[in-house]
Design a protein that fits this description.
single chain, 344 residues, alpha/beta, Arc Repressor Mutant, subunit A, Rossmann fold, 2 domains, 3-stranded antiparallel sheet, 15 helices, 11 strands, globular, S-adenosyl-L-methionine, COMT_dimerisation, O-methyltransferase
């Protein structure tokens, strides 16, 4: 007989997953983990520090200990576990910015309308009232925009050394980072290769943290920051780099415009375009984690965009005058690969 709900614990966990999300969301909003820090505290002490209701807090702390966010050293006395420390902002390897993004109301608020997105092909956020998503001005310096910027910097800094170590940058002189935001990739590449010069291209609001990022890497004197629209034109160079940009555009026609501009602006037939994207296998085969597919569905909820398979990338690049070579990145997270496009 097939397993019922109560016999299939993994299915039960899937159905109940929202509870841990909301628990961690409340924990971060109240800054409970930051209040504990390096200390060992009782519930009463933590309740006093955070102005919370001690009897309710006791139940929350027990749940956090069960999830290995905290360690209950003795009854009613807690300290941070290693997993909990990763949720602090200044811990090496921190996921604080990612967690802040995922548990915020405007990130998850439209998920209950996913069925409407499936019916209509529109974003779920268009059907969800009061999520705050439509009210976000992505061109301003709001707290949420700053949080997303920091998340993108952290994510690119994690993957950039893998790319720099796995690809030969020796033949090239100028790397153009398309839609590179604050420039963590071009900063990493230039720091590793003293012969390279860089051009960072993004919108004006996108590059506002770039001077600091480039200065911290010691490469500000070798990287020019430009503002512009990659749908219109691109600076000339012999190596173009584009991370997590193609994903943002579900329409192939829009992607084709970016790729065509890369091909048109490339200085030499020996130039290359490097795309770093998550790539889906032709069929779900267990080669990438379920979280990648959930990310793709997440783009149906709020962001727009979509993930693609190798044949889809190959067709897009072929139409723009490129041939494709796929370089797996075994140590990169979440199905990211390096797609090397050479002029056909």
């Amino acid at each position: 007989m097939p397993k019922g709900l109560w016999q299939d614990s993994e299915l039960t966990q899937l159905l109940n997953g929202y509870t841990s999300t909301f628990l961690l969301g409340a924990t971060m909003k109240l800054r409970l983990l930051e209040a504990i820090g390096d200390s060992t505290v009782t519930t009463a002490e933590l309740a006093s520090i955070t102005s919370t209701h001690a009897p309710t807090l006791t139940r929350v702390l027990r749940a956090l200990a069960a999830l290995e966010i905290l360690i209950e050293e003795r009854p009613d006395t807690y300290r941070l576990a290693a997993r909990g420390r990763l949720l602090l902002p200044d811990t090496p390897g921190s996921v604080h910015e990612l967690a802040t993004y995922l548990v915020d109301d405007w990130t998850w608020g439209a998920w209950p309308a996913l069925d409407q997105a499936i019916r209509t092909g529109k974003l779920a956020s268009e059907f969800a009232a009061d999520t705050g998503w439509q009210d976000i001005d992505w061109t301003d310096s709001s707290e949420m925009r700053d949080s997303v910027d920091r998340l993108m910097i952290e994510h690119t800094r994690a993957i950039a050394p893998i790319i720099v170590d796995s690809y030969d940058f020796g033949p090239f002189s100028t790397v153009v980072d398309i839609g590179g935001g604050s420039g963590p990739f071009v900063a990493t590449a230039l720091a590793a290769h003293s012969h390279l010069r860089g051009i960072l291209l993004d919108r004006e609001d996108g590059v506002r943290h770039a001077p600091q990022v480039l200065a911290e890497a010691g490469v500000a004197d070798r990287c020019e920051i430009r503002t512009g629209d990659f749908f219109e034109s691109l600076p000339s160079g012999d190596l173009y780099f584009c991370k997590s940009v193609i994903f943002n555009w579900p329409e192939d026609e829009r992607v084709a415009m970016i790729l065509a501009n890369c091909r048109k602006s490339m200085l030499t037939e020996h130039g290359r375009l490097l795309l770093v994207e998550q790539m889906l296998p032709a069929a779900v085969d267990g080669s990438i984690p379920p979280s990648v597919y959930l990310d793709d569905v997440g783009s149906v909820v709020n962001l727009g965009g979509r993930l693609r398979t190798e044949p889809e990338y190959r067709a897009l690049l072929d139409s723009a005058g490129f041939t494709l070579t796929v370089h797996p990145l075994p140590t990169a997270p979440d199905g990211f690969v390096l797609l090397e496009a050479a002029p056909a």
